[in-house]
Amino acid sequence: MGKRPIRFKISRYRPGHVDPPRFQVFDLSLGPRATVLDALEELRTRHDPTLLYRHSCHHSSCGTCACRINGTERLACVTVVWDLGAEEVVLEPLAGFPRVGDLVVDMGPFYEQIPAGLTCLRESEWNREASPAAGLTLYERFENCIECGACVSACPVSQPPDGFIGPAGLAAISREIEKGAGQAEDLLALAGGDRGVWLCERAVHCSKVCATEVSPARHIHKLRQRLEAEGDS
Ligand code: SF4
Ligand code: FES
Question: 36 alpha carbon to ligand 2 midpoint, in Å?
Answer without folding.
Answer: 11
